[in-house]
Each structure stands twice: as structure tokens, then as C-alpha cells.
Write a structure and sequence with these properties.
heterodimer, A: 288 residues, B: 301 residues, mainly alpha, globular, disordered N terminus
Chain lengths: 288, 301
């Protein structure tokens, strides 16, 4: 059988994929550990040890990116997890126009992040923008969404949720649809309300879907770049800079070693947060 | 069912049935209210931004600068769209060509290499070496790519700023997701298929290309749709690995136009509309497929 396996399921089949994967992803990842410790011009490098890391952590402009990245990831992930669950439960119920609503919510997922970012930054104009002029109709004085240092990051996060909620909802819809109908029938016979059904059946039994949403949106949030770049470029000041946007700024300025150190910090950060989270979530899952 | 039993049941059902009818009427009213409310909310949140962008792409510069949703006083549709397409020496036309070519090339290579890999990764699952490979693939889903070292690698082999270079980068970065989907799908194909092919004298290559690969069609079309959206809408990778004005992809063009057209929002919006059209067409034809693929990837991955 072994001989047969080697001939039939030859590892030669993996060569094209892994060659590309190795050269254009794995190799640069490994090299980044070295280049992050150099002063680097792409053609020439000096080994400088951990200086780039020290710089990264000591400058407030750079370290502010850590706090922002974490806030951004937690806010976008949290909103997608909660709103996605509510929308998922709503769109698996017997609501009218269900298919239409599902399509509408999924629609923004198809758009380019840059296009969404530009459109929303115009709509978020403090005095003339569509959002604040609409709020004014109800007598609400809308804030300067992207100019106010306290809320700019949250404004971008909200647009991120607008664009990404469709994916979260679809995942929940799949998860909730997989819950056997008997559970709901049993609860109905016992006289449970639809609130009870949501709380004691839908929420616990859609945990696998919820875990997927948490992991996907949390990692996505930590790695986020294009939306922030289209909407604020890290401003005002450095108040909306994320690690990924700092990496780009360092790269543009020609600090390749520093940019690479930022990259290493980002991937160590993602791994340290995401792997344990993944382990924890899958361990506490309820099995159907 | 005994008559006694049915009698009891009918009796039991008699009264609640009445109540159920009453509840039926009020619940129908409730359903309509909920539906109306959800339609209104979805319109406000999702359709108004689209309407805003489209209607403003029809206005002249002065009117679009007002940033409102009013109906245009005069329509400048052809003029605006022509201006955007011809701006900067037809940069957008070239960008469309680049983006389409990049998308088609990346997806073609991605499908072939990931399907082959997914097949063998599943059939050889359990071995120590394939566990290691699986770990490498999973790592690719989480760990963000190292950007400047990738540029250095591309530059060293002469592929920096080339279409081939960015194609390989796109394939490498989307390979983990595609391979995991293929692997999960291969698991649903019984090994008896392989065995009968072997008995008929087919080798590994024949088995895969003439028997297995055609059977993978559902997941292949899912990947085509999902990854086309990702590659066509990608901004970050072209920004780093495919710079230069003759190389621009549609996303970069839009980004460059943002500074060029700071006051001509009508043109900026026309650009947004133009570059959204290809994926909207895709969506209209593959709506169901996208959703199915999304869920398959999320639950199994």
C-alpha cells in the first residue's frame, strides 16, 4: 500500500503550490526575523540587533499604534459578533423578504474597501456630510466623525462593521440553520417563549459559527490597513494609526528595517493573541 | 391511532386553536410591522450610501460639492464617466486591463496548484510530514505576510513591479484558504473512486486530472467567485508589489484619483461606480454560490 500511495498520492503534486508558497510567503516571513535587526536599504544592510524594536516601542507615535490596533480589533470584532448573531437569528426566522434582506446585508462585502472608505469619508464631512445633515433633521448635532481625535478611530471601525457584517451574518445563518428543529419544538412544547429559544438554544448551539466569526474578524481587525488608509491615513495626528499603517509609513520613508520590525511585532502579536483564543474557543464549544 | 385518542386530541386542540387564530391575526400584523421596519432600516443603512454615490456621479462639480442627495439639476453622466476614463492618459482603462489580467491569472494558477495540493494533503493525512505541511498551511491563514522581505525576494529574482511577481504573491497569500477548502471537499469523495481508477490502470496524474478535478467543480466555482472578489478588490498588495503608473490596478487608480480630484467628487464617485460594476455583475450571477462558499469556508476552515 505504501508504494501505491507514493505513486498515486505523490508529494510531487504539492511541489507547484509549496514552491510558490515557500518563495513568496514562508521565505520572506523567515527572512523578516533577520532583516528586522538591520538598518536596511534593500541592497545593503548593517546588523544592529534589537535597535529597531527598541525604537518601535519607545516612540509614542509608534507605540500608540498598539493600543489603536487592539481597540480597533476588539471593537470591530465585538460588534460583528453581536450584530451578526442578532441579524443571523433574525434572518433565519420567518421574517418576510428574508432573501432580499440577506442579499442587501451581504452586498457591501463585494465592494472594494478603498471605495467604501472614500465614500464614507465624504459622507462623514462634519458640516455638509450626508450623515450629519440627516442627523440634523432629527435635531441631533452630529460630531466631526473623522476630525475628532476621540472618535475618529471608532468612526472607521463602524464603517468596517458596515462593510464586514455581511460575512459574519452569513456564517451565523449557516450555523443557526444547522441546529435541529426538534430543539425548538421541544422548547415550544414546554411553553418557552421565542426569547427563551434565542437564549437557551440559538446562542449556545451557534457557538461554532460564533467562534469562526470571532477568529476571522479579530485577526482581520489586527491586520487592518486599507480602510484606515483610505479614510484617515492615521490622522488626525497619530490617533488612528494602526500597526499596519505605521509599517507602511516606515516603508515609504525608506526605513525598511524598522518597517520589517513592525511586521514581526504584528505577526508575533497576532499569533500570541489568536492561537490561544482559537484553542480556548474550540475547547469550550458545545457539540450538537 | 385509536379513535379514543384522536377524540382526546381533537378536544384538546379545540380551544387553543381559537386562541391560535387570534394570535395569528395579531402576529400577521406584527410580521408586517417588523418587515416594514426592517426594509426601512436596511434602506437607510445600505441603499442610501449607494444612491448617494451614484446620483452624485451624475452631477457637475459644483453640485456634487454640496454633498447632498438631491436630484441633479442637469445630468452629466457621459461627460463625467468619459472624464474619469480618459484622465491621466487613460490610466483607468489600463488599470482595468491590469486588474482583469491579474485576477484571471492569479485565480487560474491558484485553482490548479491548490486543488492538486488539497487532494494529496487529504489523501495522505495523518503522516508526520503531511501534518507538518498542514501546520504550515494553517499558519498562512493567521500570520500576516512580511512585506519588505517579500519585495526583497521579488527584486532578487527580477519579479518586482511585474505582473508575474504580483500574481505569485496573490497565489501564495490565497493558497492556504483555497487548499483548506479543497482538502475539506476531497474528504467527501470516497476513496473507492481512486481505487477503481487504479484498477482501470490510471496513474496518480490521470486519476487527479481526469477524475478528481472535474468532481471538485462545486468548490472550484466557489473559490473562483470568492477569490476573484478578493484579488480584484485588493489594494494592499498592488500598493507594495506593483507600483508605478503603468502598472496601476483599479484600486490604486481610485486611491490616486482621491488626491487628484480632491474637489471633483462627481468624478471620484464615477470612478467608484465604474470599479464596482465587475463585482456586482459577478454577484448577480453567483449570489447563491458566494454565500454557500462563504459558509463552507468558515465552518470547515
Amino acid at each position: 500500500m505504501t508504494k501505491l500511495t507514493i505513486r498515486t498520492y505523490s508529494y510531487l503534486f504539492l511541489i507547484p503550490a509549496f514552491l510558490i508558497y515557500f518563495v513568496f510567503y514562508l521565505l520572506p516571513t523567515v527572512l523578516s526575523l533577520f532583516f528586522s535587526m538591520t538598518r536596511w536599504t534593500l541592497t545593503d544592510w548593517n546588523y544592529i540587533g534589537f535597535d529597531n524594536y527598541v525604537t518601535f516601542f519607545s516612540e509614542t507615535a509608534l507605540s500608540i499604534g498598539f493600543r489603536n490596533t487592539l481597540i480597533y480589533a476588539v471593537v470591530t470584532c465585538g460588534l460583528k459578533v453581536i450584530l451578526g448573531l442578532l441579524l443571523g437569528a433574525f434572518l433565519t426566522s420567518t421574517v418576510l423578504f428574508k432573501n432580499y434582506l440577506r442579499s442587501v446585508i451581504f452586498f457591501p462585502t463585494l465592494l472594494s474597501t478603498i471605495a467604501v472608505g472614500i465614500a464614507f469619508s465624504i459622507m462623514m464631512h462634519p458640516s455638509q456630510g450626508l450623515i450629519n445633515t440627516s442627523l440634523a433633521v432629527f435635531g441631533i448635532d452630529g460630531p466631526d466623525w473623522l476630525g475628532n481625535t476621540k472618535i475618529a478611530l471608532l468612526s472607521v471601525a463602524l464603517v468596517d462593521v458596515w462593510k464586514g457584517i455581511g460575512v459574519a451574518t452569513v456564517i451565523y445563518i449557516a450555523g443557526i440553520s444547522a441546529i435541529p428543529g426538534e430543539y425548538y419544538e421541544a422548547l415550544k412544547i414546554d411553553g418557552g417563549s421565542s426569547m427563551n429559544a434565542f437564549r437557551y438554544i440559538t446562542v449556545p448551539l451557534s457557538r461554532p459559527a460564533m467562534n469562526s466569526v470571532i477568529i476571522l474578524s479579530f485577526i482581520g481587525g489586527l491586520r487592518s490597513f486599507d480602510l484606515i488608509w483610505a479614510m484617515t491615513k492615521g490622522g488626525p495626528g497619530f490617533t488612528t494609526d494602526l500597526i499596519a499603517s505605521i509599517i507602511y509609513k516606515q516603508y515609504q520613508a525608506g526605513f525598511y528595517g524598522l518597517a520589517t520590525a513592525g511586521n514581526v511585532i504584528l505577526f508575533v502579536g497576532v499569533s500570541l493573541l489568536a492561537f490561544p483564543l482559537y484553542k480556548y474557543l474550540t475547547k469550550s464549544e458545545v457539540h450538537l | 391511532m385509536s379513535s379514543e385518542m384522536s377524540r382526546v386530541m381533537n378536544k384538546g386542540v379545540g380551544k387553543p386553536l381559537n386562541r391560535g387564530e387570534n394570535r395569528g391575526i395579531s402576529s400577521a400584523a406584527k410580521r408586517i410591522i417588523v418587515a416594514a421596519f426592517s426594509l426601512m432600516l436596511s434602506t437607510a443603512i445600505f441603499w442610501i450610501p449607494f444612491y448617494f454615490v451614484i446620483i452624485n456621479s451624475f452631477k457637475n462639480q459644483a453640485e456634487s460639492a454640496l454633498m447632498n442627495m438631491s436630484w441633479p439639476k442637469s445630468f452629466h453622466i457621459l461627460e463625467n464617466y468619459r472624464d474619469v476614463l480618459t484622465a491621466a492618459d487613460h490610466m483607468l482603462v489600463r488599470a482595468f486591463y491590469n486588474s482583469m489580467l491579474l485576477t484571471v491569472l492569479s485565480i487560474t494558477v491558484l485553482i490548479i496548484v491548490s486543488a492538486m495540493a488539497g487532494f494529496v494533503l487529504h489523501r495522505r493525512e495523518g503522516g508526520r510530514f503531511s501534518s507538518f505541511l498542514n501546520f504550515l498551511v494553517l499558519a498562512g491563514l493567521m500570520i500576516p505576510p512580511a512585506i519588505v522581505p517579500t519585495i526583497w525576494v521579488l527584486d532578487s529574482i527580477g519579479l518586482f513591479k511585474t505582473l508575474a511577481g504580483i500574481t505569485f504573491v496573490e497565489v501564495a497569500l490565497h493558497f492556504p484558504f483555497a487548499a483548506i477548502l479543497y482538502k475539506a471537499f476531497v474528504a467527501t469523495l470516497p476513496r473507492e473512486i481512486d481505487e477503481s481508477a487504479l484498477i482501470d490502470g490510471a496513474g496518480g496524474g490521470r486519476l487527479f486530472f481526469s477524475i478528481i478535478f472535474p468532481l471538485l467543480k462545486p468548490v472550484t466555482s466557489t473559490i473562483i467567485v470568492l477569490e476573484s472578489i478578493n484579488v480584484f478588490n485588493d489594494f494592499v498588495n498592488p500598493l507594495y508589489f506593483f507600483p508605478g503608473s503603468s502598472n496601476a490596478t483599479v484600486q490604486l487608480t481610485l486611491y490616486n484619483f482621491m488626491s487628484r480630484f480632491t474637489t471633483s467628487w462627481n468624478l471620484l464617485f464615477a470612478d467608484i461606480v465604474l470599479i464596482s460594476i465587475p463585482m456586482l455583475i459577478l454577484f448577480i450571477f453567483f449570489n447563491k454560490k458566494i454565500v454557500a462558499g462563504m459558509t463552507a469556508g468558515a465552518i470547515k476552515g
